[in-house]
Amino acid sequence: MEYKLETSPPAQVDSGLLVLGVFQDQTVADAIKDVQAGFSEQFLQKVIQFAQEENFKASSSEMLVLPTYGELPSKKLVLAGLGKSGDYSVQQARKLAGNIARRFCLNGKTEKVCFFVPNKDKDESLAQALVEGAILGSYSFNKYRSGKDDKKESNLQEIAVGGLKLQAADFDKACKQGEAIAESVNYARQLIAEPANYLTPSRLAEEARTRGQELGLTVEILEQPQIEKLGMGSFLGVARGAKELPHLIVMRYKHDQAKKTVALVGKGITFDSGGLSLKTAQSMEHMKYDMSGAACVIASALALAKLKPKVNLLVVVGATENMPGGQALHPGDVVTAMNGKTIEVNNTDAEGRLVLADALCYALQEGADEVVDVATLTGACVTALGRAAAGIMGNSQEFIDALIARGAEAGEKFWQLPMYDEYKESLKSDIADLKNAGSRGEAGTSCAAMFLKEFVDARPWVHMDVAGPSWLDKDKDELNKGGTAFGVRTLCYYVLNSKN
Ligand code: BES
Ligand code: ZN
Ligand code: ZN
Known about the structure:
The protein is of the alpha/beta class and 500 residues long. The chain has helices spanning 28-34, 41-53, 90-106, 123-137, 168-193, 201-214, 224-229, 233-239, 281-284, 292-307, 352-365, 379-385, 397-410, 422-425, 444-453, 488-497, and strands at 2-6, 17-22, 63-67, 76-81, 112-116, 158-162, 218-222, 247-253, 261-272, 312-322, 333-336, 342-345, 370-375, 390-394, 414-416, 434-435, 461-465, 471-472, 482-483. The strands form 4 sheets. The chain has an 8-stranded mixed beta sheet with strand order 7-8-10-9-13-17-14-15, sandwiched between helices.
């Protein structure tokens, strides 16, 4: 992708698509004047009249397309609604770029897009958000479409941004940062899109190894005998019912000047059938996406390996299937986690926390100063928050707040749920230290977090339950339907801005 800091006024820009942002509470004429477009009076009047005829209101994500018929060097002009000016932030710009890319570059032939949109934040943030939106919006997964015409390829080659007060070098840095993050998100989306008969735990491990090593990360894949040696009885319990073997994926990034190690821990269930506590056909349908947490942390490490922040990173993923094979855990079985705690598995479908328990212990053992885990952990979180936001919990309010704030900048919403002591009661077992599932229908997301808390000592820890926003049934702004790789942007923004 080429990036261009556009210094000419819109009337002189030579692009496939010239995009001008318009607020709902301003006139088209004012929006055009604000960017000093330099349109001829005649053309300006035509645009204004057309907008009136089409009843263009400039509400959020509304778009009006006008052919320029040689009156401008650019082929098409798009008036892009930005909603109310009071609600505006770079989030709207990211969404707009996503919608533009999907409509004109993925489903159209546009190669060059030039944006003139207002800005209330730092110019770097705007440029980065536009690049992220455009790259995310032009994603598609074609691997299994055999008909040539069914394949969607993006034609986008150049993203230009006008109206910025930036040095070329700063503009370039912002764009490259957006590119690294968005391309990693797209890579994670690809991993999630892969069906479980392709993306097995060993393939996931291989992906992490090859991609990670290409970027200079140290990647270690622990196989069953090593996992046994580590005493990960909880993780191995989940793997028992599957023919595919489990893998513990460990990726490391080191910086000379780093003062802390941030651990990112992911749930890597490449398919969740529920095990013997079998899911229904309907709730099993999309369960290939139960490795979204794993895809998220792996992809974050890849983006960060390119961007080189001054922190050490440790990524830990427990990868396995959750299947009801002949050796599968029986409800009521007791397993022992790496930290010695015994767990009565009263529900084999609450497998994510069993895998995370050992992965978290391992992250602590390997010297994590702070830990974030990302997991499609509970259906209850989808019920509570829908696809709009992830649940967030943890043992350090400061840490939780920091991630919520970075998420807001990155365009990902988090909503904190409580971790009251009462919830721990429901995890009491009659025969072991704790059981893995609480009472059905009662604060499932919080109970899961209470369970995880038993495996992080007092190390600063945040748990992200991304079960809802990791999957979309229809296109939404910068994301299209399917796996979204929710969390990559937040984690990257967090690590890039965290003090060393
Ligand atoms: N992977 C599921 C959670 C899930 C459900 C993710 C729906 C996305 C959409 C998880 O392993 C699970 O099955 N959790 C159980 C826990 C319960 C048995 C305590 C759930 O949410 O029903
Ligand atoms: Zn499950
Ligand atoms: Zn699961």
